[in-house]
Structure formats: C-alpha cells, structure tokens
Amino acid sequence: MTLRRTRTIAAVAAGALLIGAAGSANAATWRYAFEEAMDEVQGKFAQKFKEEVEANSDHEIQLFPFGTLGESADIMEQAQAGILQFVDQSPGFTGALIPEAQVFFVPYLLPQDQGTLNAFFRNSKAIHEMFPELYAEQGLELLTMFPEGEVCMTTQKPVHSPADLEDVKFRVMTNPLLVESYKAFGATPTPLPWGEVYGALQTGIIQGQENPGFFLESTKMYEVTEVVTCIGHNNFTTAVMANKDFFDGLSEEEQTMINNAIDSAFSYILDYQKDLQEEALKKIKEAKPSMEVNILSDDERKPFMETADEVEAAFVKMTGDSGKKILDQMKADLKAAGQAQ
Ligand code: 6CS
Q1: How much is the average pLDDT of 5-27?
Q2: Rounded Cα distance, 76 and 232, in Å
Q3: Where in the chain is the domain with CATH 3.40.190.170?
Q4: Of 12, 20, 194, 260, whose CB has the highest number of CB atoms within 10 Å?
C-alpha cells in the first residue's frame, strides 16, 4: 500500500470517527419517571414513548417506575428541578400545585362512554390550549393527558348509598377537592400518598380507597378490602409533562419528534385499555371469589350524583375565575365530544 493511499484511508477513518463523535455528542439520556409499575397503564405509555423516541432519534429514555425515585410529589419536584426530563403525575396530586387541575374530581363530569371520553381527551381545548399555560407557570411543558379507566371504591363493607360510607375513613389522593367530594359522599376523607395505602388498609387506619379497575387488581387491593363498588363517578386522569427549560432548549425538530412520540403513545394507550376494566374486575373475582363486586344501579347512584353541584361549587370557590373558565370550557368540550359520537 502506498503512503498516499494509507493517508487517504486514515483521513476517511478520522472523518468517520468525527461524524460518529458528533452524532453521539448530541445523543442524550433522558430520564422519565411515573407513578405506576412498568406493566401498569402509565408504564405501558412510558414504554411506548421510549420506543418511539429511540426509534426516531439518537436519544435514550431511562424509565423510573413507582418507588424507584420516591412518591408522586417527589418525582414532580425532581422534574421541576430538571433532574428528570419527563414526569407522569396525575391531577390527583398536581391539584396541590395547580388548583385548576382538580376539575377532574368534580363527580360525574367525565362521561362513562368510552368513545365520548376518548374524543374529549383527544380534542379538548381545555386540555390542549388552557392547561398548558397553567403548567408552564410551574416550569412544566404539558405534553398530554389521558384516561386510565373508571374509578371504583374498595371498602370493607358494601356501599349502596352515602349512608354506608358514614364513619368510613376513606383514602383519597392529596387534593382538597377530592376531600370535598368524599365528604359529600358521606365518608371521612383521608389524603395519603400511594405508598401508604396498602399498609393503612391492612392495619385498619383507613377502611376504603378508590382507583381504576386495573390498579385495584395489579396492586392487590382485594387482599386488604372485601367489596368493590362502582358508581360511575369518575375516570382516572393522568398527565405527562417535560421540564419546560429542557423542552424549550430543544430544536424544533426534536420537539416535533417528542410530540409525535406522545401522539403515538396516546393512541396506543387508548387502544390498550379497550377491555381492561372488565378484565380486571373478572381477575379480581378469580383471585378472590369472596370479593363482592357491585355495580350500582341508576337509582342507587342518584344520591351520589346529586352531590355534583355542591362539589362543583367548591371547585369554583377554590379556583375563582380561572377555574370557572376551565370548567366551562371542559363542559363545552364534553358536549362537542358527545355530539361527535
Ligand atoms: O391512587 C393513587 O395514588 C395511584 N393511582 C393510580 C391509578 N395511579 C398512580 C397513583 O399514584
């Protein structure tokens, strides 16, 4: 081999190395924490997001399921501080930071019909145009909100009316409106972080809690309670955010890549949940045949439904004009979603 040819090969190799180095210098590892296990709904969403980001960029997503970095409030703090680039936190916890997010706890506001619900989350102006501004004030880029299934109660004794919740210490997520809502339902609401719920039920500190079907099953709530009661009062909502400084610092192409990954994960997670609630309730009965599962009739639901106005008024009192605007927009969005069915 001539000296000239050797030099040419060396130059090409160095160039290739440089290109490679430039590529890997841009590649980053982004951290994403969520409030559930890898195989629960938030984990499935996060895995799909990771898959999309990694297929369409040089970046890597490192996933942190519940418990690896603390409670929901901890991962939110870490995301605001920029230690995490992405976080999934449900309005049930964000209500303390962004009071308007508590709108998701006005009972019977969200519909039970899956098609209407999905259309609402896909197209809602409140979610896509109004909430992002409120999250931005807290240093967060709101990327999406999605439903996780109908919320049902688990208790020690059957619940057929608000009177059955009297003297029941009932765990709720840590937001004041949920406290108002369970007070109106007749219970004694007890806000607790998720990590304390199983133990508190086991030791009798609380006698009830609420969650969507898949979560009641996967977290084995049936081991420490005796009855599941569904009254159709709510669907669990969650939200995925990025640290705003991090997101604003990305190129337009990268922001688009992230938004596309979120869109894919959003469609995937709605589809994933098609029969999830029904299957979960079935699995609970299989795991513990003595577990009573009661889907309350329209008549039985009535007194629970009658609390909606009172809780809505409490929401408006807590959040003023800003909350009222969100609530009105949500109602308009829900109407539009229903009409589109
Ligand atoms: O009840 C809770 O606190 C939890 N529930 C669900 C469905 N997801 C995460 C949250 O921490």
Answers
A1: 45
A2: 29
A3: 3-147+237-275, 152-234+277-339
A4: 194
> Atom 9, ligand 1: which residue's CA is nearest?
35
Whether the predicted pLDDT of 24 surpasses 70: no
pLDDT in tens, 181-226: 999 999 999 999 999 999 999 999 999 999 999 999 999 999 999 9
Tell me which architecture the domain covering 3-147+237-275 has in CATH: 3-Layer(aba) Sandwich (3.40)
Distance 93 CA to ligand 1 centre (A): 9
Pocket flag, ligand 1, residue 211 (CB < 6 Å): yes
Question: Residue 250 Cα, ligand 1 centroid: separation in angstroms?
Answer: 31
Look at ligand 1, atom 3, and give the residue with the nearest C-alpha.
194
Pick the CATH number of 152-234+277-339 from 1.10.390.10, 3.40.50.300, 3.40.50.720, 3.40.190.170: 3.40.190.170
pLDDT at 25: 54
CA distance 210 to 112: 16
What tokens were used for 301?
């639901």
Query: pLDDT of 223-236, one tens digit each?
Result: 999 999 999 999 99
In this structure, the residue with its CA closest to atom 10 of ligand 1 is: 35
Strands 227-230 and 169-172: unpaired
- Give, using CA atoms, the residue closest to atom 5 of ligand 1: 211
- The answer to whether the CB of 173 is under 6 A from ligand 1 is yes
- Whole-angstrom distance, CA of residue 45 vs CA of residue 39: 9
Q: How far is the CA of 194 from the centre of ligand 1 (A)?
A: 6
Distance CA 188, CA 191 (A): 10
